[in-house]
Amino acid sequence: IIIAVLPEKAVKDGSLFWTNVIIAPIRDESNSLVGFSKITRDLTERKKSEDKIKLAYRELEERVNVRTHELSVAKANAELAVQARDQFFSIASHELKTPLSSLKLQAQIRQRSVLKGDYSDFTPDKLLELCSDDIRQVERLTFLVDNMLDVSRLTTGNFALKTCDVNLNELVTDVIKRLTPLTNKSKIEFRTHFPQVIVGQWDPHRLEQVLGNLITNCAKYAPGKPV
Questions:
Q1: Could you count the other beta carbons within 10 Å of the beta carbon of residue 149?
Q2: Residue 178 · residue 133 · CB < 8 Å
Q3: Which of 34, 55, 140, 213 maximizes the CB count within 10 A of its CB?
Q4: CA quadruple 204, 206, 210, 212: dihedral positive or negative?
Q5: What is the rounded CA–CA span in Å between residue 16 and residue 78?
């Protein structure tokens, strides 16, 4: 007996269709072969149904792959957002601590002088200088608070520098002077060397950030060392 599933020509119009064919021998009473019987079943509808199921499965598999990719991208974006948040808090904490530490140390120094009855640092000229230093520190804090979203601006491409004419010598000297209480506490000796006056177009606040971070790191990780 031969059983086969194959396309077979229809008798009427010559088109192809799927069939199940069973061919069996026909024998007489003496078991001699006298012919064959052939049974053909039309499987066209069943084949169409199978093809539809396969197509639906492929489409479903494609949708699953697309959705899996979307979820993977969403997960990666969420992880980047968490990293940006952590970086933001780290930077904000570091940036705010520098001027706050300086202000605190200056206040403690003045408090000790007052408690000792030493008012030599409170002459009109000294007071004016101390007030100017305090104002600069407060302005620095205000600037930092106003720019707490720098990390977000960087990731979105909206970060911008505000440049102006800057005397680099004066800026470096001012930052070192402002952080003197912190460097004195860490016993850091600063030596500056300006072979010439350097003036350029820069963002003074960002330069102060860089220098402030460097000096703070020196005080924290290299106390007693020359800079």
A1: 13
A2: yes
A3: 140
A4: positive
A5: 55
Check: CB of residue 192 under 8 Å from CB of residue 170. Answer: no
CA–CA distance from 178 to each of 120, 128, 129, 152, 173 (Å)? 19, 14, 11, 29, 9
Residue 30 amino acid letter:
S
Helix, strand, or coil (residue 208):
helix
Which of 55-59, 128-132, 151-155 has the lowest average pLDDT?
Answer: 151-155
Q: Would you call 92 exposed, middle or buried from its count of C-beta atoms within 10 A (0-12, 13-18, 19+)?
A: middle
Residues 213-223 have pLDDT tens digits of 888 888 888 88
Other Cβ atoms less than 10 A from the Cβ of 43: the count is 19
Helix (H), strand (E) at residue 137: helix 124-146
Residue type (1 letter), 124: P
Is the separation of the CB atoms in 88 and 151 below 8 Å?
A: yes
Among residues 190, 227, 213, 188, the alpha carbon closest in space to that of 101 is found at 213
pTM above 0.85, yes or no: no
Whether 134 has a pLDDT exceeding 90, the answer reads: no
Rounded Cα distance between 211 and 53, Å, is 68
Element (H, E) at 139: helix 124-146
Of 142, 147, 134, 138, residue with least CA distance to 91: 147
- Which is more confidently placed, 167 or 182? 167
Question: How many other CB atoms sit within 10 Å of the CB of residue 182?
Answer: 21
